[in-house]
């Protein structure tokens, strides 16, 4: 079973996203700011990170840079980081990729869209079946 770190400051988005990810067969750890995300990645191993780009204390871009720096220092393989944002302006995706993110999705994020993004980075892990009753939108467009 793949282990996902969800870095999201909105409590409602955390509950909805974690529930949907669990229904998709993922183990989920949740943090609510960039400092906690960078610390979690330094202390533990994740198969992927879902990183809200606008969080308090340290934003998702800074957290991604910190994670990438830690990986380089230790010679670790980079964990896939998928940026999440309510912003859909021209150039936002490029800013995320320049920060070291591997992909960028705009909110509201649909279950199928997130599942496809994770599938691009994660090998199949067995009997994960899609639950048609899972919510269709994982995150509100609030942040």
Question: In words, what does this structure look like?
Answer:
Residues 126-136 have low confidence and may be disordered. This protein has helices at 11-23, 34-43, 60-74, 92-98, 111-121, and strands spanning 3-7, 27-31, 48-52, 81-85, 103-106. It has a five-stranded parallel beta sheet with strand order 2-1-3-4-5, sandwiched between helices. By secondary structure, it is an alpha/beta fold. Helix 2 (34-43) packs parallel to helix 3 (60-74). The chain has five helices and five strands, in the order E-H-E-H-E-H-E-H-E-H. It is globular, with a radius of gyration of 14 Å. Helices cover 39% and strands 17% of the residues. The chain has one domain: Response regulator (Rossmann fold, 3-Layer(aba) Sandwich).
Distance between the termini: 29 Å
**Helical content, roughly?**
25-40%
**Total strands:** 5
Q: Helices and strands, in N-to-C order?
A: EHEHEHEHEH
Supply the helix-strand structural class: alpha/beta
Radius of gyration: 14 Å
The average pLDDT value, as a whole number, equals 88
Low-confidence runs? 126-136
User: What CATH first level would be assigned?
Assistant: Alpha Beta
How many structural domains can be distinguished in the coordinates?
Answer: 1
Strand order of the largest sheet: 2-1-3-4-5
Shape: globular
CATH topology label: Rossmann fold
Name the CATH homologous superfamily.
Answer: Response regulator
How does the major sheet shape up? 5 strands, parallel
CATH architecture: 3-Layer(aba) Sandwich
Number of helices: 5
């Amino acid at each position: 079973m793949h282990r996902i770190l969800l870095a999201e400051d909105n409590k409602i988005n955390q509950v909805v996203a974690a529930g949907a990810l669990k229904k998709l067969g993922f183990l989920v750890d949740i943090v609510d700011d960039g400092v906690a995300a960078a610390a979690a990645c330094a202390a533990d191993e994740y198969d992927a990170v879902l990183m809200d780009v606008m969080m308090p204390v340290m934003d998702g871009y800074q957290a991604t840079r910190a994670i990438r720096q830690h990986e380089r220092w230790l010679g670790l393989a980079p964990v896939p980081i998928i940026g999440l944002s309510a912003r859909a302006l021209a150039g936002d995706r490029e800013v995320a990729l320049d920060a070291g993110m591997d992909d960028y999705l705009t909110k509201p994020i649909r279950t199928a869209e997130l599942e496809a993004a994770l599938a691009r980075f994660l090998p199949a892990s067995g009997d994960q079946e899609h639950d048609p009753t899972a919510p269709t939108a994982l995150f509100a467009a609030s942040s």
